[in-house]
């Protein structure tokens, strides 16, 4: 049977989203299944079963998962040790000694427990200096003794190897790994120079430790999922999303699991960047609300803003990642009272037991319960009618927990939950727009995730955002975005030289060496020469500054053009430029293997009258009038391009609902997407 199906599956905190693309017809099908936290692979296979996809016809399976992230947050990783230079055992434990901003004046603050106990850290004889020159040769006997202590005495099953200045010369790390593997072949080894070849010892050690910590559990998960897929007839390519966009083969992912920790949200950002280009929107804000979190990111000049350092709990990660602002606020976020003040999140009901209205044993009211009480969600049509909701139970829980203690009606309490969530959302969006020199009013807001279309028009009204774009099947948009992801790998080398003093010939030679590594990685992942693109970047800062900016450079290295590009970006970001010399920190190469993207359909246009899609009216809460009023209810599947209508209205598509308050209007664009705007805009 010919292979013509692509399948994308994204695991969220509450549901698993599965999306199927038929490459012959461009037809898309979408289904959801409950997340299974105890056995995450089961949730993936259940979602595929809901779709009814014949896996023998699947040419490509692409997956986004936060398994590594959850392993760290829940402390479920393997017993991990550190092998470092003698005298530097405490690099990881000491860190930077900084206090998080939200605890700056908390004199009782204590750092969370470390992932690695001090007795699980061992030093070995051997040392490089800051230029990568050997000061002391590596002592094989000290490596064997350290490994014996960690494995036999402490029971460590995964070891992070990170030596001082090894990013300049990986020889000592590789030799130490060979010695340890020879003695203990079953122990998992993670080398810093295989993960990141950049300066900053603590950050590089932290990245390597996190890799070692989640690698055993991630390998087991991928092996289990591969086995389950193969048992159901799958023989195609298995890709996993990267945190910084793009994808990699499952084989590469098992050796680099840290690159997957934010892979779920990354799928939505990839899809958003594609849509920004296809819809002609250079500036777009992504607004993804799922069951447990809200993720927002800026698409600027058609590209997502990226960073080369992420944060996992309080641990730094030197990996490419989208600059996503995340807060613990989603459909499953719990509403509670703190000394008489209403709060929403960050605790979530998750998938088990879930919101009270799910009827699975949940007792604490959530945002989803509030949406049911406010009339935004039809209890009989939730998930397309496959999962009925218990509206009375949601109302009772909200009344007992919030309404009665505050002396409010159930509707007023539910409206308060939405108001608090909206206030937190405004703060998160301001952090990535206003506080970075962007005017949110010139952006389009792309709403996706199960609760994104519910809250996005309210956010647009609050912040004056000109337009909300709601794609088809928004609750599965991250999975759809994965279908447009290229295969990507990133490589870097630390340079630490001023731009004026840098030897351009040496810089070019270094670029060519790194490009060879990138090309080899893409070739190993099955990318042909015709589909390969290599992008060059330099990480630069003014000499004396701490913060840096990333500048894309051409094949010809011209210092004047590089400085101009840096200063344009610096002025756009910070509003000024300086006369200081520029310092090169890192040289970067992104290897890209282009893949076929799903095309955007253009359904037959309608006559502008949405009457055929009108299912009736029901009372719901209108934020414009602050009252329960009749809302027109439209069936998303029956709306056609060109249809227009005004709020208050609800657009129901089974897996999500778009809430359009009074004072806003909707137009269906040529692709069938909903464009929600203010009536006076």
Radius of gyration: 26 Å
Which structural class fits the helix and strand makeup? alpha+beta
Shape: globular
Q: Total strand count, please?
A: 35
Average pLDDT, rounded to a whole number, is 90
Q: What's the structural domain tally?
A: 4
The biggest beta sheet is recorded as:
9 strands, mixed
- End-to-end CA span: 53 Å
Instruction: Estimate the helix proportion, in percent.
Output: 25-40%
Spans of at least 5 consecutive residues whose pLDDT stays below 50 are none
Strand content: 25-35%
The protein's oligomeric status is single chain
Give me the number of helical elements. 16
Characteristics of this structure?
single chain; 681 residues; alpha+beta; Dna Ligase, domain 1; 4 domains; nine-stranded mixed beta sheet; six-stranded mixed beta sheet; 35 strands; globular
Compose a concise summary of this entry.
Helix content is 31%, strand content 28%. It is an alpha+beta fold.
Task: Walk me through what this model shows.
This protein is 31% helix and 28% strand. The protein has 681 residues and is of the alpha+beta class. It folds into four domains: 1-261, no CATH class; 268-485; 487-593, Dna Ligase, domain 1, CATH 3.30.1490; 611-678, no CATH class. Strands 13, 14, 15, 20, 23, 24, 31, 34 and 35 form a nine-stranded mixed β-sheet that branches. A six-stranded mixed β-sheet has the order 3-2-1-4-11-12. The longest helix has 31 residues, at 201-231. It starts with a strand and ends with a strand. The model has no long low-confidence stretch (mean pLDDT 90). Residues 595-615 are annotated as: Disordered. Residues 204-489 form the Hydantoinase A/oxoprolinase domain. InterPro entries: ACX-like_C, Hydant_A_N, Hydantoinase_A, Oxoprolinase-like. One of its GO terms (cellular component) is cytosol.
């Amino acid at each position: 049977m010919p292979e013509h199906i692509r399948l994308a599956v994204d695991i969220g905190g509450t549901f698993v989203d599965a999306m199927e693309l038929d490459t012959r017809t461009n037809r898309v099908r979408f289904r959801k299944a409950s997340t299974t936290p105890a056995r995450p692979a089961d949730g993936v296979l259940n979602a595929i079963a809901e779709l009814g996809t014949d896996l023998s016809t699947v040419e490509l399976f692409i997956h986004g998962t936060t398994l590594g992230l959850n392993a760290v947050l829940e402390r479920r990783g393997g017993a991990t040790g550190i092998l470092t230079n003698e005298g530097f055992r405490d690099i990881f434990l000491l860190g930077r000694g900084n206090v998080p901003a939200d605890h700056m004046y908390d004199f009782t603050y204590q750092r969370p427990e470390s992932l690695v106990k001090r007795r699980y850290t061992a030093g070995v004889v051997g040392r490089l200096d800051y230029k990568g020159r050997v000061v002391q040769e590596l002592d094989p006997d000290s490596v064997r003794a350290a490994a014996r202590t960690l494995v036999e005495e402490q029971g460590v099953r995964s070891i992070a190897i990170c030596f001082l200045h090894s990013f300049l010369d990986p020889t000592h790390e590789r030799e130490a790994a060979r010695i340890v593997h020879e003695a203990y072949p079953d122990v998992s080894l993670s080398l810093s120079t295989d993960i990141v070849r950049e300066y900053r010892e603590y950050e590089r050690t932290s990245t390597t430790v996190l890799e070692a910590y989640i690698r055993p559990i991630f390998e087991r998960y991928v092996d289990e999922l591969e086995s389950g897929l193969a048992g159901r007839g799958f023989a195609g390519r298995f890709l996993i999303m990267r945190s910084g966009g793009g994808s990699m083969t499952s084989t590469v992912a098992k050796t680099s699991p840290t690159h997957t920790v934010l892979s779920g949200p990354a799928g939505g950002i990839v899809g958003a960047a594609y849509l920004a280009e296809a819809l002609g929107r250079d500036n777009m804000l992504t607004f993804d609300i799922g069951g447990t979190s809200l993720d927002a990111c800026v698409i600027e000049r058609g590209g997502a803003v990226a960073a080369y350092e992420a944060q996992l709990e309080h641990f730094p990660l030197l990996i490419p990642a989208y600059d996503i602002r995340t807060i613990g606020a989603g459909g499953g976020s719990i509403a509670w009272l703190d000394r008489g003040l209403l709060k929403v999140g960050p605790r979530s009901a998750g998938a088990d037991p879930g919101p009270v209205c799910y009827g699975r044993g949940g007792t604490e009211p959530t945002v989803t319960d509030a949406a049911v009480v406010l009339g935004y969600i039809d209890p009989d049509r939730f998930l397309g009618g496959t999962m009925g909701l218990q509206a009375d139970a949601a109302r009772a829980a909200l009344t007992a927990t919030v309404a009665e203690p505050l002396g409010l009606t159930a509707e007023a309490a539910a409206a308060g939950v939405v108001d608090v969530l909206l206030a937190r959302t405004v703060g998160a969006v301001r952090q990535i727009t206003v506080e970075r020199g962007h005017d949110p009013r010139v952006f389009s807001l792309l709403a996706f995730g199960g609760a994104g279309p519910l809250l996005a028009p309210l956010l647009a009204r609050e912040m004056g955002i000109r337009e909300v774009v709601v794609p088809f099947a928004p609750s599965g948009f991250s999975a759809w975005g994965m279908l447009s992801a290229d295969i990507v790998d990133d490589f870097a080398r630390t340079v630490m030289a001023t731009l004026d003093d840098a030897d351009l010939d040496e810089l070019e030679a270094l670029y060519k060496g790194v490009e060879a590594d990138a090309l080899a990685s893409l070739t190993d992942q099955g990318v042909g020469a015709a589909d390969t693109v290599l992008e060059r970047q330099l990480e630069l800062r003014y000499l004396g500054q701490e913060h840096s900016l990333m500048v894309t450079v051409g094949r010809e290295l011209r210092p004047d053009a590089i400085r101009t590009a840096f200063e344009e970006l610096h002025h756009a970001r910070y509003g000024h430029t300086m006369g200081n010399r520029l310092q090169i920190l890192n040289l970067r190469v992104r290897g890209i293997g282009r893949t076929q993207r799903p095309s955007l359909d253009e359904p037959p246009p309608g006559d502008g009258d949405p009457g055929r899609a009108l299912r009736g009216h029901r009372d719901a809460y209108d934020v414009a009038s602050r009252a329960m009023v009749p809302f027109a209810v439209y069936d998303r599947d029956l709306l056609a391009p060109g249809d227009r209508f005004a709020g208050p209205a609800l657009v129901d598509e089974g897996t999500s609902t778009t809430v359009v308050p009074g004072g806003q209007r909707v137009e269906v664009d040529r692709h069938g997407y909903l464009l929600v705007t203010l009536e006076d805009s």
